[in-house]
Design goal:
Blueprint: E1 6-16, E2 19-23, E3 31-34, H1 37-57, E4 77-85, H2 86-96
Antiparallel strand pairs: 1-2, 1-4, 2-3
């Protein structure tokens, strides 16, 4: 498997009464939540980094990102593309293991 240095995936921020639920249509099982938009961006990057690191480690297939035009949103949802530089994520995770 080829490990990429830069990943870009669409993130969906679902605004609910109790906060923001975060999910990635192309990365099943990758979820997070937050109270504010700023926190949602930070948590989305962290969740995506850990998820992709785990997929790389397990030699799992990493899907190509969907196009934003193919994403169907609900009224309470906003889509954002999250970019993640994986060498920093790998370094931080491997340092703590």
């Amino acid at each position: 498997m080829i490990r990429k240095n830069l990943y870009k995936y669409i993130t969906i921020f679902n605004y609910a009464e109790d906060g923001i639920n975060i999910y990635f249509p192309d990365l099943p099982g990758c979820f997070s939540c937050a109270d504010t938009y700023k926190e949602a961006i930070k948590n989305a990057k962290e969740a995506m980094g850990l998820h992709l690191w785990s997929m790389e480690k397990d030699n799992d297939f990493i899907p190509k990102p969907s196009s934003l035009k193919n994403i169907k949103l609900k009224n309470n949802e906003v889509a954002k593309t999250i970019k993640l530089f994986m060498p920093l994520v790998r370094k931080r995770i491997n340092k703590n293991n």
